Amino acid sequence: TWKWVVGPMFLYLCERLVRFWRSQQKVVITKVVIHPFKTIELQMMKKGFKMEVGQYIFVKCPAVSKLEWHPFTLTSAPEEDYFSIHVRIVGDWTEGLFNACGCDKQEFQEAWKLPKIAVDGPFGTASEDVFSYETVMLVGAGIGVTPFASVLKSVWYKYCHDATNLKLKKIYFYWLCRDTHAFEWFADLLQSLEAQMQERNNADFLSYNIYLTGWDESQATHFVVHHEEEKDVITGLKQKTLYGRPNWENEFKTIAGKHPGSRIGVFLCGPEGLADTLNKQSISNSEADPRGVHFIFNKENF
């Protein structure tokens, strides 16, 4: 038995040593941004840190807890000179981080007063393969929208730098959430991308649909009253917020009709139930003919 156990244990110890060494490397918090609804953005720098789109890291703040590590998706793009995470304050540890960063104080905080942070990672996800397709469907549900902040930023940087060599030609983005308040920072990102694409006369590059799955009668009445306005009253985007859930069968058939003979990447960050639905639709809407349209499903569950 020991011959079978020694090998895996040796590899496990090596992996733990590498993770310990990486966690001891110095991390500098360069900026803390407070977003609405108790969400903070930490922008950090670390020597030798290299990331790809949609990856995640583990974060430890000794000032809050000396042992706890928490995973956070990177919301920055590889092209930026820093890496960032967005943290929503929903528990004891995040509340402690919020206070340790001085976000509970009104006055300006000096950088040297910010707490020490340990970072382990980054670690890869399915989202890294986005640039392998000409057409992609990105589906984010709730907090699952965070990986696509990194993806959309990186797409924009690549598009601006050399659009002719960018294989990705069309993005269909779907955002499903109970309410957009906790993710207003993401709506701001979409507004910026929307404006920049229009300036370059390529507004069709990114098609997005926002579905509000949790809404009440007062919201519905407000929606009816302001439906004719140029911009959506909830997100401030030109694309109006939709209510309920998408009809995935219709969405897949429409996209398949627009891109015959293509390999279309379907990327999800969301719950297991939605993953099963999208996987079945990807299979049923893919053609048996190798020259036909094929949906390739990739998922990241939480």
Largest sheet: 6 strands, parallel
- Let me know the number of strands: 12
- Helix/strand-derived class? alpha/beta
CATH class of the largest domain: Alpha Beta
Query: Strand fraction band?
Result: 25-35%
Q: In the CATH hierarchy, what is the architecture of the largest domain at level 2?
A: 3-Layer(aba) Sandwich
The low-pLDDT segments are none
If helices are DSSP runs of H or I spanning 4 or more residues, what is the number of helices? 7
What is the share of helical residues? 25-40%
CATH topology of the largest domain: the name is Rossmann fold
Q: Could you tell me the mean pLDDT?
A: 81
- Identify the overall geometry: globular
One letter per element, helices H and strands E, the order comes to HEEEEEHEEHEHEHEHEHE
N- to C-terminal separation?
A: 36 Å
Strand order of the largest sheet: 10-9-8-7-11-12
- The CATH fourth-level homologous superfamily of the largest domain: Nucleotide-binding domain of ferredoxin-NADP reductase (FNR) module
Protein model, in words:
The protein has 302 residues and is of the alpha/beta class. It folds into two domains: 22-121, Translation factors (Elongation Factor Tu (Ef-tu), domain 3, Beta Barrel), CATH 2.40.30.10; 125-298, Nucleotide-binding domain of ferredoxin-NADP reductase (FNR) module (Rossmann fold), CATH 3.40.50.80. The protein has helices at residues 2-23, 92-100, 146-162, 184-199, 217-225, 248-258, 272-284, and strands at residues 27-35, 39-46, 56-60, 70-73, 83-88, 118-123, 135-141, 170-177, 206-212, 242-243, 263-270, 294-301. The strands form three sheets. Strands 10-9-8-7-11-12 form a six-stranded parallel sheet, with helices on both faces. It has a three-stranded antiparallel sheet with strand order 1-2-5, with no helix packed on it. The protein is globular, with a radius of gyration of 21 Å. The mean pLDDT is 81. Residues 19-129 form the FAD-binding FR-type domain. Its main location: membrane. One of its GO terms (biological process) is superoxide anion generation. It holds the Pfam family FAD_binding_8.
